[in-house]
User: Fold RNA 2',3'-cyclic phosphodiesterase from Sphingomicrobium lutaoense.
Amino acid sequence: MHRLFVAFVPPEPMIDRLVTVMDGEPEGLRWISEEQLHCTLRFIGEVERPVAEDLAHLLAHVRAPALQCRLDGVGAFDRERRGALWARMAPREPIEALHHKIDRAVTACGLPPERRAFLPHVTLARWSGRVVEHRGWSERHGGLSSPAMRIDRFTLFESELGHAGPLYRAVAQYPLGA
Assistant:
């Protein structure tokens, strides 16, 4: 089985900006390593090798313009004893359009369509098993922003779960734009 997702990796200057808000507080967070920061376009989950190969082939046929994205604030998914801190990617509409094209490729492989609402973001930290007071962090970094930067590819990743958290490995990259 292969645990897969599709994402784009922000450009290095944007990652450098993200790292500045990953400041170690509040307590109880597991910060994402700089090398693993990404904006998920579609989580796929566990699939057998033939489905993974079909998906890789269909993703090569996704056509979309390159994106001009910027960082635009922070937020949290807070489900009491688990959650995540994140940075918003903007503008939403072109990223969401790419998400829908990728979702169509995923469903063409016989997998179910995405049912969750799509919010373009980069996860910065996670927590589980405890309540984390993150409002101070959100207030401190609420103005996070960056200039718009070109995103010219998206990537099919495989996620390997381990004791230290997931490890992401690029399986294939696909160009955006001309």
